[in-house]
Amino acid sequence: MASKTSIPEPVLRRFPRYIHCLHHLRSRDVDTVSTSMLAEQLGVATAVAKKDMQYLNVEGKNRVGYDIVQLIHAIEELLGWNNPDEAVLAGAGNLGCAIMGYDRLQNYGVHIVSAFDTDPGKTGTNICGVEVLDISHMTSLIKRLHIRIGIITAPAKHAQAIAEAMVDGGIMAIWNFAPVALKLPPHIIVQDTQLYASLSVLSQKLKERLDAST
Amino acid sequence: MASKTSIPEPVLRRFPRYIHCLHHLRSRDVDTVSTSMLAEQLGVATAVAKKDMQYLNVEGKNRVGYDIVQLIHAIEELLGWNNPDEAVLAGAGNLGCAIMGYDRLQNYGVHIVSAFDTDPGKTGTNICGVEVLDISHMTSLIKRLHIRIGIITAPAKHAQAIAEAMVDGGIMAIWNFAPVALKLPPHIIVQDTQLYASLSVLSQKLKERLDAST
Residue A1: what pLDDT? Predict the structure, then answer.
């Protein structure tokens, strides 16, 4: 089994998808799965799925494949889902709500304990089981609960100030949806997700396809 | 100027971020920008920004840089924002609403004309200016309006059927948020966005960082 620190990012990104597809097979009373079946479900080459499985501490059987329950457990163990990290979210707008309302979020190793916003119409309310508090309380709550993950779904113009307030509280890793490059101390892990950049790519590919066909 | 078809995906993904940052500078009455300033705002190397600018039909001036208005226009031209594609969205849940409510969506070259859902509590309503219709009307509306882009924000179990209904109507490109590998004819462009995969990566990086420091 490879050491955890050596798992490349594309492999890590596939593991939640394997879990999703394994649960789906389980719900259809399937007990075992071959790497080629997994590969097909994910839309990757069989060699890729085979290599991915080598990061796990499980043995497949010839002509039978992997025990699905065992495989789910091994992936959850690797991803640390059995011991989710606590997180706070800043910006309880539509995107923030989408993330808080995602019923499988905990499956990704993260549990949102509180959300923060500046809108008095939102603070004091409960969105998808998460309490929304005024942003002025964020730093102290992060400190008090020793929270290490922050999620920023606030408008771009507030993102830098929010990130700094998070880091002041002790946040070590930030999932940032704002389209700005956060300027933070180098020991802070930042994962930028440029949601709409995919749309530019899609629309460009479509144009190229249409240009080619005329 | 390089041909449009030769623009690599990472470059395409940066252009909307350049635009965002150029508008921000404009709002502060800045008229010109250097590649090093652009690079700093985006958090990329100056050489990267310099290379990106070469895909555009604009000339910078020595020691002055680029005219911001000209640069915005050139990027918008390249991305086709002056002539947005029409799109439909299936699944008016939290994520669907987040996308429909994004005020800059049109800036990414796409305009959502209708959304579809199965929930009678949502159909017939208007979400962020987009009418939500029953999903049974989707294929015919796509045909009637010659729409070419479909966005899937519906639950995973419905994604394949929705994608097929979109393709039946004439959709050529799909932005898919469901964590499933869609099985579609090869001429259909599919852009998968695995929103929560980033979270696994973030949480894993945090674990590695904590392991390393103990």
Answer: 43
